[in-house]
Amino acid sequence: MTVNDLAKIDGFNTIILSDGSLEVSSAYTGDLLSDVIANVGDDSVLITVQAHKNTIAVCSLSSMPAIVICNGRSCPDDMIKAAKENDISIFETDDTQFLASVKIAKALNL
Amino acid sequence: MQEIPINTYSSPTVILDLIYRLKVKDVMYKDLTCATMSSTLREIQHLMKKEKITGVPIVQGKRLIGLVSMDDIIQALDKGYIEEPCKAYMSRNIIVLEDDMPISFAINYFDKFSFHRFPVLNKEKELVGMITSRDISATLLVEINREMEILEKSQASNQPTNPNNINGEIHSYNIIKHDFENAGYASTQIKKKLKKGGVATQIIRRAAIASYEMEMNIVVHSNGGQLSATYTPNKVIICAQDRGPGIKDIEKALTPGWSTANDWIRSLGFGAGMGLPNVKNVSDDFSIESSPKGTSVTCTINLQKKDEENKDDSK
Fold first, then answer.
1. H-type helices in B93-224, by residue range?
2. From A39, A42, A61, residue closest to B191, measured CB to CB
3. Containing H/E element for B294?
């Protein structure tokens, strides 16, 4: 599926849609950025509560096209700006990371 | 608008060097005109006129209590309380800068907030100065002039090129302690450079992991330092050099899960004790040296494809 399909998932609010055509083939759930950068696979969406600019750096370095920020946390402006500059899309949801992961797994037919 | 048209993470290196090297205390004005809570707004209005300033900090001893701006005075004139003490009318929620911060912070603040000036506090939280965007522009112009002069001179003297540059290129980046705002910039540049050079994706990934962890280590744990990347046709050598305080027990630091990070750092998603182990894991060659004067970490990644597969499996 693509980033555009993430935007359609129930309960996901689009904060910024940078490049909706990018491929999403997997997902990674985690808040420890060192763990994320070390283990994430290609074309993965990141499911996390880390709503700050460094998360964008990690996504950009690991070629992740999108982030889902969980538990109703909101993104600061500098994070959204950095996402835009790096072609990364951001979604916010009130869901827990577990629930968001399940929804994405279903959308990926896993 | 007060916006300062300098991008604090993708401007030319010369400019980035400047805005990180210059501290708020180098730029701020220290000759402050202050008032106290019992000063009337009328007195403050006269102060502004006399000193040709548009904002007056309200202090108690060396502590900053509030700020009266030209807007506050206009309000007071309009609503008729200009003769009253400023205590009830001054702005109390004030955004301040610290004198040790690089001016990149100040530039970001001016671009982020619509204030015309920021009070500057020292480590003891005492008011030591004020900074306006004009102070920054003026200082930057002087410094840029100086840098341009040096550049022109070095071009004119036609020096032989640095022998290191014949093999490839060396890029180095200054990393500031606790500068989470710009953390990740150096590693992103290294990644871009390798991508441009057509290096295989998996190898770029390893270089990105190593450089990011090394960069974050300087930001999180050190007093600041430098990250450099040396590019040769066969390998990239990434080197982190900081200015202390050193690692007490290197063996422990290389143990996955061992960390000295505090709760604040951990809440940002760092300090999981995975940094150095991650770097070591993706390196083809890895070395570390540390003393209280500083730590230096060198990581070499071969750009050939041969051992890519087994490195990729190890986690």
1. 103-112, 133-156, 164-167, 185-196, 201-221
2. A61
3. strand B294-302
Q: Is the pLDDT of residue B307 over 60?
A: no
Q: What distance in Å separates the CA atoms of residue A77 and residue B109, rounded to the nearest whole number?
A: 13
B14: which residues sit within 8 A by CB, 6+ positions away?
A: B144, B147, B151
Phi and psi at residue B9, in whole multiples of 5°?
Answer: -135, -10
Per CB-CB distance under 8 Å, the chain B contacts of A63 are 201, 205
To the nearest 10°, report the CA torsion of B136, B142, B147, B149: 160
What is the CATH topology of the domain spanning B164-313? Heat Shock Protein 90 (3.30.565)
| Residue B108 Cα, gap to closest chain A Cα (Å) | 10
d(CA A44, CA B89): 52
Cβ–Cβ gap A37/B212 under 8 Å: yes
Which value, to the nearest 10 degrees, does the dihedral of the CA atoms of residues B69, B70, B71, B72 take? 60
What's the ipTM?
0.73
pLDDT reported for residue B5: 76
Alpha-carbon radius of gyration of chain B: 25
What residue type is assigned to position B162 of the chain?
N
Cβ–Cβ below 8 Å for B269 and A39? no
Beta strand A66-69 pairing with A89-92: parallel
Tokens read off for B123: 């480590």
Identify which of A66, A68, A70 has the alpha carbon closest to the alpha carbon of residue A94: A70
At B58-117, the pLDDT tens digits run: 999 999 999 999 999 999 999 999 999 999 999 998 899 999 888 988 998 888 888 888
Cα A65 from Cα A24, distance rounded (Å): 7
pLDDT above 60: residue B164:
no
CATH architecture of B13-137: Roll (3.10)
- Closest residue in B to A51 (Cα) is B268
Question: A22 lies in which domain range?
Answer: 3-107
Domains identified in chain A, total number: 1
Q: What is the CATH number of the domain that holds A30?
A: 3.40.1390.20
Cα–Cα distance, B211 to B55 (Å, whole number): 44
The enclosing H or E element of B63 equals strand B63-69
Query: Where in chain B are the domains?
Result: 13-137, 164-313
